[in-house]
Amino acid sequence: MVNLTEILEPIAAWFRSLGIPEPIVHWGHPLMMGIVVFVMGIVVGFTGWRGRLVEDKDTAIKSRSAHRQIAPWMFLFMALGFTGGVLSLVMQSQPIMESPHFWTGSSVLVLLGINSAIAFSKFGGNQPGLRNLHAYLGSTALFLMFLHAILGLKLGLSL
Q1: For residues 8 and 131, is the Cβ–Cβ distance under 8 A?
Q2: What residues have CB less than 8 Å from 40, skipping those under 6 apart?
Q3: Residue 109: which of 150, 135, 88, 137 has the closest Cα?
Q4: What does DSSP assign to residue 97?
Q5: What is the pLDDT along the chain (159 residues), one digit of tens a residue?
Q6: pTM, whole model, 2 decimals?
């Protein structure tokens, strides 16, 4: 089995050599990802549902457009933040895969990846079932992001 910590240790050692202050190593990931989760996540969820539910066509179009513009950036920042969080744990000599925080983060990325594939398929030719699946998977991912943030705070306070 591949030991992720051993693979990432040379990168972590290089970052350690930069003399980054411990509070930044410890709390930088939670701060930045908190912004992504609570700002971008809420905006993406709100605009997605608003685009589905609002009756005014112009408002619905603007909301769907905003959703399409922000969601890919949120996914990118989530993926980069995942990488940064794992690297932060390695830099602090902490186990990676033992935390529920790691597993909720991994699950969020899988759900968002599936949702991205659904959207890129243009919902399978605009199939209502795939549009509904996209909405509910996205909402599940958003809920899981909030749980992930709580578990991350718990993890950060325990280290």
Answers
A1: no
A2: 70, 73, 74, 77
A3: 137
A4: T
A5: 568 899 999 999 999 999 999 999 999 999 999 999 999 999 999 999 999 999 999 999 999 999 999 999 999 999 999 999 999 999 998 988 888 999 999 999 999 999 999 999 999 999 999 999 999 999 999 999 999 999 999 999 998
A6: 0.89
